[in-house]
Design brief:
This protein is an all-alpha fold and 424 residues long. The chain has a domain at 3-109. 72% of the residues lie in helices and 0% in strands. It contains 20 helices and no strands. Helix 16 packs antiparallel against helix 17. The model is unreliable at 95-109 (pLDDT under 50).
Length: 424
């Protein structure tokens, strides 16, 4: 195997195994920053060793064992847990002498618990949302600092400092490496799900830059969401979020035209929607709703948004969409997650279910919301409703306002094209 092929294989392996390695080492050291450094040391050791010796029979086990040895050395240097480290070292040495299969069994013990601790640590509310996203992609996604920086269109140095500050904040706040207590779970889980969905949304509709979408971020968010669902199978909102992302991701191929230009929902070729992802999403939604029924709980925001997405997924054509049900679901969403953005989305659904005039009155009622003063989607929605009402000059002006506010160049170009099409 060539060095290039080996590096490519190691890169793919690291994306899969890095979270497990960091989680297990963090469990030993009780320090996420140290754990990541040790995990990176194990990766460098593989890059130095494998080209000469070849790929081990179990590369993941090799990385884990190497990282654990280095963690033991770190503990010795810190002179921590002096009474236990001899036993820990002897256990590992004995397992190594006995052969790799036993080491694998020892390594895999409670790995799910360690991963869950890592998830809640990386997404801790003491960090800013931007820091949580960066740290989660770094620790749980195995992405390099450069990859994360490019995905979010920030300088690599800025992103690196963000990660360094996040680790320092966790240390200074003495955030324990543990899953939250039962009375803290709801708040902390909300933070985890928010981070995963922020990552997905940045991939699904890029905030800025030249690309309409960044599918790699969607895929990473899906991987993280599925992992959390495996770790917390009894939490309905986790499955609700997975359902929402699966169904939205099913449209990725249909959301751009041949030149990369945006294609909006009502104009998409639905034969290009990924039916496997839709089936997976509907299955996850059914699981969430089943858990809600058993636990006698009301729908949370992710399950409700997934139910809205399911209405679109089930419609073979735009005209077959059950817009009245979507309006009702948005009514429920406003109850559990009151927000001007949700109200704007509801107005769009009202425009389809009851006509543009009623929807326009709702949109105009939202125009003074401070959050919408620099938000391009409000004038964009307003322009669409005005155009449907035949008020073309007003629609053109609204599209141009939206284009001026848009930060994504593809979206700006689409809005200017729509403005140009609004001739009286």
């Amino acid at each position: 195997m060539s060095r290039t092929d080996l590096h490519r294989q190691l890169d793919g392996l690291w994306r899969i195994e890095s979270a497990k390695v960091v989680a297990k080492v963090a469990h030993m050291t009780r320090d996420v920053g140290v754990a990541e450094e040790i995990a990176q040391d194990a990766l460098l050791a593989a890059l130095e060793t494998w080209p000469g010796q070849g790929l081990p029979d179990n590369p993941g086990a090799w990385l884990m064992t190497t990282a654990k040895h280095r963690a033991i050395d770190w503990l010795r240097r810190q002179q921590l847990h002096a009474a236990n480290e001899t036993d820990l070292s002897r256990t590992l040495d004995d397992q190594m002498a006995a052969g790799m299969p036993d080491v694998e069994a020892w390594m895999d013990d409670a790995i799910g618990d360690d991963l869950l601790r890592l998830v809640f640590t990386a997404c801790h509310p003491v960090l800013s949302p931007e820091a949580r996203v960066a740290l989660t992609l770094r620790l749980l996604g195995g992405l390099t600092t450069d990859e994360i920086a490019r995905a979010f269109l920030v300088p690599e140095a800025t992103l690196a400092q963000r990660i360094v500050r996040a680790k320092r904040t966790l240390g200074e706040a003495r955030v324990p490496f543990e899953a939250p207590r039962a009375d803290e779970l709801a708040e902390r889980l909300d933070a985890v799900l928010e981070v995963v969905y922020l990552i997905f949304n940045e991939g699904y509709a890029a905030t800025a830059g030249d690309d309409w979408m960044r599918p790699a971020l969607c895929n990473e968010a899906l991987r993280l969401g599925r992992m959390v669902a495996e770790l917390m199978p009894a939490e309905p909102e986790v499955h609700g979020l997975v359902a929402l992302m699966e169904i939205q991701a099913s449209r990725l191929h249909a959301r751009t035209g041949p030149g990369g230009e945006p294609v909006l929902l009502m104009d998409q070729d639905r034969t290009r929607w990924d039916r496997l992802l839709i089936r997976r999403g509907l299955a996850a939604l059914a699981r969430a709703e089943g858990l809600l029924a058993v636990q006698d709980r009301g729908h949370g925001p992710y399950a409700l948004q997934a139910a809205i997405a399911a209405c679109h997924a089930r419609a073979v054509t735009p005209g077959a969409t059950d817009w009245s049900r979507i309006v009702a679901l948005y009514d429920g969403l406003l109850q559990v997650m009151p927000s001007p953005v949700v109200a704007l989305n509801r107005a769009v659904a009202v425009g389809q279910a009851r006509g543009p005039a009623e929807a326009l009155a709702l949109v105009d009622g939202l125009a003074l919301e401070p959050r919408f003063q620099q938000y391009h989607l409000l004038p964009s929605v307003r322009a669409d409703l005005l155009q449907r009402l035949g008020r073309r000059a007003e629609a053109r002006a609204a599209y141009l306002v939206a284009a001026d506010l848009a930060r994504n160049r593809r979206e700006e170009a689409l809005l200017r094209e729509r403005a140009a099409a609004c001739h009286p």
